Amino acid sequence: MPELPEVETVRIGLQQFLPSLTIKDVSFDWPKGFPNSPQLVKDKLIGTTIKKVMRRGKVIIIDLSSKYSLLIHLKMTGQLVFDDGKHHFGGGHPTDSLIHSLPDRSTRVTFVFTNGAKLYFNDQRKFGWVKLEPTDGLYQNNAFLSKLGPEPLEDSYTFDQFTSAVQKRSGTSIKAAILDQSVVAGVGNIYADEGLFAARIHPVTKVADVSIIKLKRLYTALREVMNLSIAYGGSSDRNYVDAKGKKGSYLTFAKVFRLEGKPCSRCGRIITKIRVAGRGTHVCTHCQKLPKNKS
DNA sequence: CACTTGACCTGTCCGC
DNA sequence: TGCGGACAGGTCAAGT
Q1: What does the alpha-carbon distance between residue A185 and residue A152 come to, in Å, rounded to a whole number?
Q2: Domain that holds residue A250
Q3: Strand B bases with any atom < 7 A from protein Cβ
Q4: Exposed (0-12), middle (13-18) or buried (19+): which is A84, by Cβ within 10 Å?
Q5: How far is the CA of A208 from the C1' of C8 (A)?
Q6: Nucleotide nearest to A148 (CA to C1')
Q7: Which of A118, A147, A176 is at the close of a domain?
Q8: Which nucleotide has the shortest C1'-to-CA distance from A147?
Q9: Residue A147 pLDDT > 50
């Protein structure tokens, strides 16, 4: 599911609810998704209090009162849904329906807090993971975090940083380059397609054939589409929901993603779907032309 | 090396 | 209606 804007939306919700809550119990049934030893994890989690909820790339980082941090990757279908324990049946609030039906068959981990609240980690496809790691040196020592490129929405993120990292992947397509989490952290399939459309770059174009002007447009476009998405609670194509179980509405602004067969909003030609870097890729071949005589 | 292709899973949708 | 295959927001390991 989630790319940077969706994970950030989840983070914002969790940061609203979790800090100061103390973990009373943890239950999990799927060892592969929680690679630390189950008993070890329980021993280290129970009795700790949540300090802060952060994000790096597509990973949620929960800072605990102990010397440990909880890392959660939602991969394709992960959800982190909070139930404050105060909902009552018959309230009729539509967004409460998911919370009332949890846990369900996709629930992999349940965190129970001393005040009766619960946090569910659901993951239909079981690709996601939850890890407990020492907080000290986390960003350097954790194998996943240590490989991530810069955060694209930070004020300090520059066009030079973007270009030099992208151009190191000169042999591959521009889409594969921006999906590479070591080039820039957090871009996934939706925002890659939307950014490339906005920048008028064909996704198959070799990095070496993308002009500096177009790279500049892409740098700006990726930040714009992801910021816009955060403002609308992310994209809900299928499973994605935020910490309250609510869907995001960014896809109503999408220009190409999942719009194959429909007319392009810019030129009216039909949007097509191809395969690039092993991913379904949406493109308007009139607005996004491949350079001639080149790949 | 750099790059590409399956595998990991479950569920849904589409064509026959 | 049933069944097979393709496909789905992401990453890895293994292949070329």
Answers
A1: 7
A2: 159-283
A3: 2-11
A4: middle
A5: 30
A6: C11
A7: A147
A8: C11
A9: yes
Number of domains in chain A: 2
- C1' of C7 to CA of A47 (Å): 43
Kindly state whether residue A112 falls inside one of the protein's structural domains: yes
Of A19, A260, A279, A291, the catalytic one is A279
Place of tokens 């476009």: A221
Q: Is the pLDDT of residue A241 over 80?
A: yes
- Residue A55's DSSP bridge partners are A60
Chain A residues 254 to 273 with C-beta below 7 Å from nucleic strand B: none
- Report the nucleotide nearest the CA of residue A144, measured to C1': C11
Residue at which a domain ends, from A120, A147, A174: A147
Residues A13, A97, single domain; the answer is yes
Which residue in the block uniquely carries the two structure tokens 């930070």? A154
pLDDT tens per residue, range A159-188:
999 999 999 999 999 999 999 999 999 999
Same-domain check for residues A124 and A209 = no
Q: What is the pTM of this model?
A: 0.96
Q: Is A153 part of any domain?
A: no
